[in-house]
Amino acid sequence: MNKFPYDLKNTSFLIYVRIDSEDRLVNLELVVKHITKYFNTTINLLEVDSSPKISTSFIKKHGIEYEFFEDDNEVFYTTKYRNYLIRKCKAPYFFICDTDVIAAPEALLQSIAYLTNISNNNVLVYPYNGDCYNVSKQYRDEYALTNDYDFLKENEKEHMLWFKYSTGGVFGGKTKTFLKDGIDNENIYGWGPDDKERYYRLKRKGFTIKRMEYTLYHLYHQRNNNSRPYDEKLKNRNQIEYLKLFSSNF
Q1: Where is the Galactosyltransferase C-terminal domain (predicted)?
Q2: How far is CA 2 from CA 10, 30, 39, 148, 193, in A?
Q3: Which of 50, 57, 186, 241 is deepest in the core (most CB within 10 A)?
């Protein structure tokens, strides 16, 4: 790949964020720079917080379609806001993208090509094979000097294989498929099993699940309240909701 940025005007990258640390802000900028370096596309960014933390200059610099939603609840209602972004999406194809992950440009292109060429609308696509590597702070900061994807790839042996069968981070599909009912189960509230619940729920409904043969990189960040269950009560409630998928009544 050497003639970027590539045309992905038919696609929107949907990003939701709560800036809960300096790392989150750093990673958001790295993810946005990665997308805009390799693609001519649209980025829809939803910031959810008690007050805005993302600067106007950052938004203008990267040509982001930005929206702020005031929400001072300690629990970040991620399932709700993912569904909100999809319902507002104007492009025929989308990726929902966490603020801390870098996917291979080739994989993103191949994902959209796959969606474009398949007549089936009930498709969930992952631009990686399930392997998710955690990039240390040292290598994240080195990567930030160039925003060169090949740097992460060439140093993959230095990153820890965090998940072997990841179902989160970044995924895509056809927008029209999810306009009515959304893509996420809003009975799951806050950090929890929402990614695997989505994967198995759509799979059991007969969706085609397509993965690309690339790895995904997760950038280091401080682990705050939005990176773990809020409390045991909510953790158990979310787990019960996830396990409903495997009951005889589903």
Answers
A1: 161-221
A2: 21, 20, 12, 12, 38
A3: 241
Instruction: Measure Cα distances from 55 to 19, 58, 73 in Å.
Output: 12, 5, 22
Query: Is 42 exposed, middle or buried, given 0-12, 13-18 or 19+ CB atoms closer than 10 A?
Result: buried
Q: Beta partners for 210? A: 125
Looking at the domain that runs over 8-246, which CATH code has it been given? 3.90.550.10
239-245 contacts: CB < 8 A, separation 24 or more? 239/192, 239/193, 241/185, 241/187, 241/188, 241/193, 241/197, 242/188, 242/192, 242/193, 242/196, 242/197, 245/197, 245/200, 245/201, 245/204
Q: At 111, list the tokens.
A: 């994902």
Q: What is the pLDDT of residues 178-202, one digit of tens each?
A: 999 999 999 999 888 999 999 999 9
**Amino acid residing at 21:** S
What pLDDT, in 10s, does the model give residues 121-152?
A: 999 999 999 999 999 999 999 999 999 999 99
